[in-house]
Amino acid sequence: MTLIECVPNFSEGRRPEVIDEIVAAIAGTPGVTLLDRQSDAHHNRSVVTFVGDSLAAQKAAFAAIATAARLIDLNHHEGAHPRFGATDVVPFVPIRADDMAICVAAAHALGARVGAELAIPVYYYEDAVRRPERRNLADVRRGEFEGLREAIGRDPQRAPDEGPAAVHPQAGAVAIGARQALIAYNVNLDSTDLELARRIAGEIRERDGGLPCLKAMGLALDDGVQVSMNLTDYRRTSLRAAFEAVRSRAAAAGADVRESEVVGLLPEDAVTALAREVLRAPRLTRALVLDAKILDGILAAEE
Amino acid sequence: MTLIECVPNFSEGRRPEVIDEIVAAIAGTPGVTLLDRQSDAHHNRSVVTFVGDSLAAQKAAFAAIATAARLIDLNHHEGAHPRFGATDVVPFVPIRADDMAICVAAAHALGARVGAELAIPVYYYEDAVRRPERRNLADVRRGEFEGLREAIGRDPQRAPDEGPAAVHPQAGAVAIGARQALIAYNVNLDSTDLELARRIAGEIRERDGGLPCLKAMGLALDDGVQVSMNLTDYRRTSLRAAFEAVRSRAAAAGADVRESEVVGLLPEDAVTALAREVLRAPRLTRALVLDAKILDGILAAEE
Questions:
Q1: Which CATH class is domain A3-178?
Q2: Which residue on chain B is closest to A298 by alpha carbon?
Q3: CA nearest neighbour of B44 among B7, B71, B15, B73
Q4: CA A300 to CA A290: how far, in whole Å?
Q5: Given A275, A281, A301, which is nearest B275 (Cβ)?
């Protein structure tokens, strides 16, 4: 059995009874383990993290999408975060970096069912993309619910990958995708120089010619400054490479790293890769980590 | 449910049918996951690694000890490795460093049963020790089977912690203990200077005033030299500290680390601790690692 992760985002962050019912639809699906749920009232959005094998994960996601379509009306939704669906995005994420093909297949199987059975238009994005221009979620979600409602039937460029060429009257649309695990990683400097943090962020991020698969911005904290990063593929730019990119530039400016923090969960592969680099231990992989081996053993026994 | 690891050593490394039957006794115990088995014909010894909750692990270990007592006769055993029992040692090892008390309790419960039901004398060692002079396994096993057979009834210092004051006629005695995970870790130098490897080993090992909980020796390889280490408590001396101790001393002598390797399995906590140090990320613990969290989620669901 191969576990994959699913991290759906729902356009409700204020009504606990609605969020509870969506989470219950996920947690009540056999074979699924709920790992996390977070709601943000300002964004009016909730993020749920769960794992299961491909089929169980699809079933749980489908149940959640159906529940959200019943309980959330986008016509009355407002929040700081852009959105175009009651279930806004459903990314499948490989736990072992090699399992991307399983996640892509899960996205497509779920999308076909959501389009046909729930009459919600579906857009595939990132590694599940069918039209290359839809890779980035921001492009797919352009205009949000209100904009897509007008454009979907008129503009062939906005025709969905699955389902009707009209938004669902309350639930809008949904983006379903597959992507590598994203690592949110912040490095705090022992400096109050916001310009330094911004300059480092500008030098290291991919967009401006820096490290691949790295997004970065400089932020002011109460007690210093921070380079806040997203690693969108830790196999391309590792945690240690990101840390060192910040540390060395800070050092050149006479500053140092005070501490760093990972926000959310970190795949075992990302931690092991760091140990492999630091220890110059090329054969140190997930297969040598006891806890991962136990997990794999338990999963294999369930096959 | 809390999983613990058990790594029994059996005095048989040549007859596959005997080893198979012992392993089958373990793997056939409900709630136990077999992780590894290794046999060494020269040592005439096999090491089995499995995990389970405390009760399942005790049952599997008991079944293995009973099977080994039936199939192995120490009177006809010879091998390079010191031994005093058909099942020679049974260490319980916490998977999460904090779970040592559970391992000590498992050792004592198993020991009482082995002494009473199998009439095999039991000696507790390391963290399960009842007499402080028995902490080190080498002291417990002094004289091996043949020596203990003579001494056990005469010398009050050799009286067992459980069971009869006579060795089992075929199966001898057994040492049952609890200890932190031991990490076997080798660092290879780009040098052929065996004296350098030996000098570094001498400087860094605890016995000679070096790093706590670190054993080390210098070895010649076909293509270089190696500092071969055992970390007996990675919370005291970490993988990175051991690596750096070797690297810095090698560098001072004009040599460098070519690569390093972990032999056997590594607890998640040891990998995460390394990332925590390198990234200066004090809040980076096992609780943030996806795979460990999934494992804990699956185990919690089984409670």
A1: alpha beta
A2: B33
A3: B15
A4: 15
A5: A275
* Residues A92 and A103: beta-carbon distance below 8 Å: yes
For residue A7, how many other CB atoms are within 10 A of its CB? Answer: 22
Q: Which fold has domain A183-266?
A: Alpha-Beta Plaits (3.30.70)
- Identical fold, B3-178 and B183-266: no
Amino acid at B33: T
- Can you tell me the distance from the alpha carbon of B159 to that of A30, in angstroms, rounded to the nearest whole number? 54
ipTM value: 0.79
Q: Which of A42, A76, A81, A168 is catalytic?
A: A81
B29: Cβ contacts below 8 Å, ≥ 6 apart: B52, B56, B59, B60, B63
**With left for phi above 0 and alpha for psi between -120 and 50, is residue B136 left, alpha or beta?**
beta
Gyration radius of chain A's alpha carbons:
20
Q: Cβ separation of B267 and A291 shorter than 8 Å?
A: yes
Tens digits of residue pLDDT in A9-46: 999 999 999 999 999 999 999 999 998 898 988 889 99
**A185-209 per-position pLDDT tens digit:** 999 999 999 999 999 999 999 999 9
**In terms of DSSP H, where are the helices of A119-158?**
137-140, 144-151
- Contacts of residue A262, defined as CB under 8 A and 6 or more positions apart, other chains included, come to A183, A184, A185, A239, B281, B284, B288
Residue A168 annotated among the catalytic residues of the structure: no
Distance CA A290, CA A261 (A): 24
- Taking the C-alpha atoms of residue B218 and residue B285, their distance in angstroms, rounded to an integer, is 33
* Tokens standing for residue A117: 């059975």
CB contact under 8 A, B290 and A283: no
Q: For chain A, which residues make up each domain, given as ranges?
A: 3-178, 183-266
> Distance between CA A112 and CA B115 in Å, rounded?
63
